[in-house]
Design brief:
The chain has 147 residues and is an all-alpha fold. The chain has one domain. It contains 4 helices and 2 strands; from the N terminus they run H-H-H-E-E-H. It has a two-stranded antiparallel ribbon. A hairpin with a 2-residue loop joins strand 1 and strand 2. The longest helix has 30 residues. The two termini are 19 Å apart.
Length: 147
């Protein structure tokens, strides 16, 4: 099943990112007088673990789903794409050290200011993509006979 494979690869990828960002976080902690990493380095590390386990749930529900593999693959793929894009923003802000709250005004990415419509449009897309992608495989799994 392609949907399950997508979710499994994403799970492994996010888990690897979690481990690497953990090393990055530790590097900052060792060098900081307060023994702290920048906010978005910490967020990137923790979020990657959460996305890895979220992908396991997507794989589980996709495996049970009664929808076609194409439908499940689109659902899983959309959710994973938005997980990855969110993770990318955390890593970018961690590298740039440009904010401790990406949703606080003025919206920044490095030295550049971002328009509010872009930030809020992305957040709306992210919510629709993640929730919608999950609902696809979850609803398909709920059509399956009880285990």
């Amino acid at each position: 099943m392609q949907a399950v494979q997508i979710a499994r690869w994403a799970c492994g990828g996010f888990f690897l990112v979690a481990l690497v960002t953990g090393l990055w976080k530790y590097h900052h902690i060792r060098r900081s007088p307060e023994a702290r990493a920048p906010v978005y380095v910490d967020i990137a590390h923790r979020a990657a673990f959460l996305y890895a386990f979220s992908c396991l749930l997507l794989a589980y529900f996709a495996e049970l789903s009664r929808w076609s593999d194409l439908v499940d693959s689109v659902g899983v793929g959309v959710a994973v794409l938005f997980f990855a894009s969110a993770q990318g923003t955390y890593i970018a802000h961690g590298l740039l050290r440009d904010t401790d709250n990406q949703l606080a005004r003025p919206y920044r990415l490095g030295a550049r200011r971002l328009p509010g419509w872009l930030v809020h449009g992305y957040m709306l897309s992210l919510a629709i993509g993640e929730i919608g992608g999950f609902l696809v495989v979850f609803s398909g799994a709920m059509l399956a006979p009880p285990i």
